[in-house]
Amino acid sequence: MALETAQIQDKLSATFSDVTFLFKLEKDILSIEVPADKITAIILYLKNDSELRFHFLTDLCGVHYPDNELERQFAIVYHMHNWYENKRIRIKTYISGENPSLKSLTTIFPSANWMERETYDFYGIDFIGHPQLKRILNMDEMVSFPMRKEFPLEDGGRTDKDDRFFGRTQSNK
Question: Which ranges are annotated Basic and acidic residues under compositional bias (predicted)?
């Protein structure tokens, strides 16, 4: 029997009756919005349930929404895959912009290690309990987080590039 979207929704709603889920079907992938304080328990359940079997964490990334209210300025998005049924789901949780932090998933999925480090490196999100949360791609001396929307797109004081080569000159006609 193929794993259906309704079955996933029903099992999550029954198991976590105290949680308000927001379910959406986006491009044939079930997207589930969950509260940040329940994310670890829900992902652990999705992995360990004998019918759901979402054993593979495909991706984990951050998103910055600076125009949202303070408690929803950052989102962490998890993509999980059930190889037995070839079913994919997306789980999204929002966290505060004041102190963006969330529990690490490295004890559930060791593959989350580098994905959480990359998310920290670019968004400054602290993954509590991560075994080695430090920059992975940017310089250690960097004090800002380049994927945040307030990060400047380019250095206005650069003199080493000529805008003519980038199609940014105004015609003098």
Answer: 153-166
